[in-house]
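tool=predict chain=A
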Amino acid sequence: MINKYLKWLSSESNSIYWHDSAIRSEQVDAFNNGAVGMTTNPFLINATLRNDPEFWKERLQEIPKGLSKDEKVLALVKCVTGFYSDQLMPIYNKNIHGKGYVCAQTNPNKTGDFQYMVDQAEIYSKWAPNIVVKLPGTRAGLKACEVCAAKGINVAITVSFSVPQVLAAGKAFQKGADEAKEKGIKPGLGIAVLMVGRLDDYLRDVAHDTQSIVTEYDINHAGTACIKRAYDIFQERGYEAFLMPAGCRTADHIIDLAGAKMIMSISTKIAKMINDKKPDTVERIDKQVATDSVERLLTMAEFRKAYEPNGLLLDELITFGATNRTTTQFIESGWNPLTEFNY
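tool=predict ok
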């Protein structure tokens, strides 16, 4: 299906469109509409291997039997991301920053283990030059981001839902990238993810539980308000990392950011929502979320944590409610099932 809006977004604005799925049929459709990169995670890897076994059968036969649990998952992740890295290599070879990459996420069971993440990132980075290693937005993950960036490894901070998290990610990547330059190493790609829709999901539950005065409209624009605020600060500070809206739930999560110099992670479901809505092809990144909505949202302590640049301390990042919810999903519906996957 032709998606005129996504074609416009990817060709006539500053925004970069990446596809959010590892299912082959969805990937083909997305790239026909202008996608130039891909995001994956343990949940998406598990989903494509189980839902499309015939497609992956031949590649899976190349994986040795008898691997340990971690070795098996790494082999399965490499099977999927390796295929897509090959598919994306012609785009990557055009040497346009932010285009031609595929993400591979580290073990979500280890979001507090700095050295484990660095070691795993170094393994991933050797698979292909266009692999982006996804690390969690925790204190340990941010430290790993800085170390990896200093080595020239492509890194993305994910499982991230707040302005303080993405600002810390931008700072960590910049510090590492600057160190790489001093050593004569070309810095890799840096990405700071803000899971706008997943933040909205979390705040909706909090609002219901606390009988908040916020409206559903407010909730649906909370993540957007946060990433717009972060974007302004990124521009002021000159961070080289791209912000990435992800975990979207509505078409507006993308439409309201159009024109931003961001890498946008867009699933097939969201692409269809955008197509059905038929929005005008205009840039909206400079249009702020309604002041009265932000004021109502600011009555919620959990929104203030996500919205204010100093709303969360480094030690609090791993404990934020949205972080815990998403980490658990990646473990229970992604990484751990892959340890039991039969091929």
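Residues 126 and 153 are 9 Å apart (CA to CA). The two ends are 33 Å apart (CA to CA).
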